[in-house]
Design brief:
Elements lengths: L1 E8 L3 H8 L11 E4 L6 H12 L7 E8 L6 H15 L5 E6 L6 E7 L13 H18 L16 H8 L5 H15 L3 H10 L2 E4 L5 E4 L17 H10 L1 H5 L23 H17 L9 H8 L1 H13 L5 H31 L1 H12 L1 H8 L6 H15 L5 H62 L1
Antiparallel strand pairs: 1-3, 2-4, 3-5, 4-5, 6-7
């Protein structure tokens, strides 16, 4: 099995080539190969190719890495697979290959010129080319050499090599631990606030923001599982608590359900002001996208076509809020800023309440999270002294408090739910604010674009009439 990744580099070519050909890593350059270039002259030849086609700026070279499963491949096999890969995927590109054996896992490095020596075309890398070409070719070659491959569905997300290595050995990773605890908390939680409390009691710190982040106490960085799995976003977790985790994971119910609010039938309105401008602009962008109008599309208009979805979202926003003039937009902007300020005040009040109870809430979390460490300490396991001391400190804090533990737990869950709801409202208002500002900023440019297109169209019509 080979885990592959590709890196675009704008630095010096000789530095990358020297790294790949490092004799200490490649058994004195025995495990190296060259395609479409000569050993010792590879850097000069790549630069000559760039100068010949006038493409000396931007990405200088690309760096592909194939990391093989420990013990599954020999260095010679890895070099053979990497060479076959380069011949098939990189015809015409000057390529340097080196297999490094300085670590536990064997890995092949391929550096190739960003400019094709035969055609002069620059190589372009994106997600589609990675999965359909690089990953697909690498997997097929691994199968042909009777090596294992990553099966579809078993690892649909990108992982670090260390994480993959631990998974392949059946060892737990922080990510797998987090996902297991998330599922447990979702199944046990009554609502979102209760879920946050359960996660904290399992030893996880929580970051509330645009994305929901988690980290074990003592870790440096937060993990954001919602990036790869919509189930673990705040909306996905709320839906899973309400409708059941099993149905969502089995595919019988989506993680997030977006319901269009009911709107009674209304006769199609005649738009005026800003909304009329948006209708006209979207019409023009649609024609441009179909290559029907105007006859020649400028790079600036091509970029606007790519933003058409954003303009549709803005148009829906204008219609839902009844905005027809810049005055309407300015009024909504002022109301949204006022609403946002009030929400921020409410959140500050809730955070002050949380701060007053912080010591008790932290003790409650420590008692729950450190209970297994306390049991191990009492069984005589060494190394649990610090955790046991912290557990006893937390118990002492709770016993010195006049509030019953169960009531404190309910209070904590309630305030966490209130903070989560306020955060959701704040995100919604901030989105409205950003849309409103973007609309007001974009109006002058949209009007100019439409005038230019109409003037060009009139000139073309006049020319056709004269003929």
């Amino acid at each position: 099995m080979a885990v592959t990744k590709i890196l675009a580099r704008k630095g010096r070519l000789d530095v990358g080539i020297n790294y790949v050909l490092n004799g200490d890593k490649t058994q004195e350059r025995v495990l190296t190969a060259h395609l479409n270039c000569d050993p010792g002259r590879e850097c000069r030849q790549m630069l000559d190719t760039k100068r010949a086609y006038g493409k000396e700026e931007g990405v200088m070279y690309y760096h592909i890495i194939q990391s093989f499963k420990p013990g599954e491949v020999t260095p010679e096999q890895a070099l053979e697979i990497a060479t076959e890969f380069a011949k098939e995927h990189l015809p015409g590109y000057e390529t340097v290959i080196g297999v490094h054996v300085d670590k536990e896992h064997i890995h092949a490095h391929l550096i190739f010129n960003s400019v094709n020596a035969d055609t002069g075309e620059k190589y372009h890398s994106n997600a589609q080319s990675y999965y359909q070409q690089i990953r697909a070719t690498s997997d097929r070659l691994c199968r042909e050499h009777e090596l294992s491959v990553i099966m579809e569905g078993s690892s649909g997300r990108a992982v670090s090599y260390i994480e993959w290595l631990r998974q392949s050995r059946g060892q737990p990773t922080f990510r797998s631990m987090l996902e297991a605890d998330l599922r447990t908390a979702i199944q046990d939680a009554n609502d979102l606030g209760h879920f946050f409390m359960l996660m904290e009691h399992m030893g996880w710190e929580i970051s509330h923001g645009n994305r929901l982040g988690f980290r074990l106490r003592g870790q440096d960085r937060f993990m954001y599982p919602g990036r790869k799995n919509g189930l673990f976003t705040e909306d996905g977790i709320r839906a899973a608590i309400q409708s059941g985790l099993e149905d969502i994971e089995a595919g019988r119910r989506p993680a997030m359900i977006y319901r269009t609010p009911y709107r009674p039938y209304k006769k199609h309105p005649k738009y005026t002001g800003i909304m009329a401008l948006y209708v006209h602009y979207l019409y023009v962008l649609g024609k441009i996208g179909q290559r029907r109008y105007p006859p020649r599309m400028t790079p600036q208009l091509r970029q606007e076509v790519m933003k058409a979805d954003r303009y549709r979202e803005q148009f829906d926003f204008l219609r839902e809020n009844g905005i027809a003039t810049q005055g309407d937009a300015a009024a909504l902007l002022a109301r949204t800023e006022e609403t946002l300020a009030n929400l921020m005040k409410q959140r500050t009040i809730l955070n002050v309440r949380k701060k007053k109870r912080r010591k008790l809430y932290a003790a409650l979390a420590d008692v729950e999270a450190l209970a297994p460490a306390k049991a191990l300490y009492e069984d005589g396991l060494s190394g649990m002294e610090a955790e046991f001391a912290r557990y006893m400190e937390a118990v002492a804090v709770l016993e010195g408090c006049s509030i019953p533990r169960e009531r404190l737990r309910l209070e904590k869950a309630e305030i966490y739910e209130q903070v989560a709801e306020i955060n959701r409202q704040i995100r919604a208002e901030r989105k409205k604010l950003a849309l409103c500002r973007d609309i007001l900023d974009r109006l002058p440019q949209m009007e100019q674009d439409i005038k230019k297109i109409e003037m060009k169209d009139e000139v073309i019509h006049d020319d056709s009439r004269r003929r």
